[in-house]
Amino acid sequence: MRSAKNKTEGSLVTGGPLSRELTTLKMLRLVDFIQRSAQLAFTRISGLSDFQWRVISRVNELEPLSMNELSALLQRDVAQVSRAVKGMVAAGLLNRTVREGGPGVLITPTALGRNVYGPLRRLARKRNERFLSGLTADEVKVLEHCLETMTRNAKAVLTQEGAIARRESARRPRTGRLSGAQRVANVR
Questions:
Q1: Does one domain contain both 154 and 84?
Q2: Which residues pair with residue 96 across a beta bridge?
Q3: Looking at residue 129, what DSSP letter applies?
Q4: Cα–Cα distance between 44 and 120 in angstroms, integer?
Q5: Rounded CA gap, 166 and 97, in Å?
Q6: Which of 37, 99, 101, 148 has the fewest beta carbons under 10 Å from its own?
Q7: 177 domain-assigned
Q8: Cα–Cα distance between 149 and 185 in angstroms, integer?
């Protein structure tokens, strides 16, 4: 019997029968490998923490951003993003300016923040080339088409699941919530 460590470091086909059958699970495993290697590579190149280089990348790509927009893009709590931005402002990587005509702030990169982002952008392009190596230009086009289609489908499923969750939440009594195991048993 192989250890769990060997299963994650070995071939892409790990896990049980469902993991070998479902394309979505194979994609999740691929994304996990890409994200884990990104954490190592981008942190090594920039000297920033995993979260900080994600912040600097998003701000450079989509400036100016409000705190709420940045939080949504990073899928993190506003307080966590605010703390990271505050530290990066103090380090001279980001600017925080009061939004003209309303509450809130806008976040933009400083000159230093743009300089830090340059190597990150180059590394992202190099990594993309490495992940696509072995694919022909036509295969990359097909892959791009498949990703666009699956992204549309995933957004539709997310919207549908959100609507179902809101309906069920409205019908569910406020007390006595079912545990996860109880909900699964009720599905059967």
A1: no
A2: 107
A3: H
A4: 10
A5: 36
A6: 101
A7: no
A8: 33
CB 53 within 8 A of CB 43: yes
Among residues 107, 133, 159, the one where a domain terminates is 133
Residues 111 and 19 in one domain: yes
- Kindly report the pTM of this predicted structure: 0.71
Range list of β-strands (E), the chain: 65-66, 94-98, 105-109
| Tokens encoding 159 | 């919207």
Neighbour count for residue 33 (Cβ, 10 Å) = 12
Run of H or E residues at 177? none
**Do 122 and 58 share a domain, yes or no?**
yes
109 DSSP β-pair partners:
94
> In a structure prediction context, what are the per-residue pLDDT tens digits for the chain, which is 188 residues long?
444 444 445 555 467 888 888 999 999 999 999 999 999 998 898 888 889 999 999 999 999 999 999 999 999 999 999 999 999 999 999 999 988 877 789 999 999 999 999 999 999 999 999 999 999 999 999 999 999 999 999 999 999 999 999 999 888 776 656 666 665 566 55
Q: Which residues form the domain of 61?
A: 14-133
Domain check: are 116 and 157 in the same one?
no
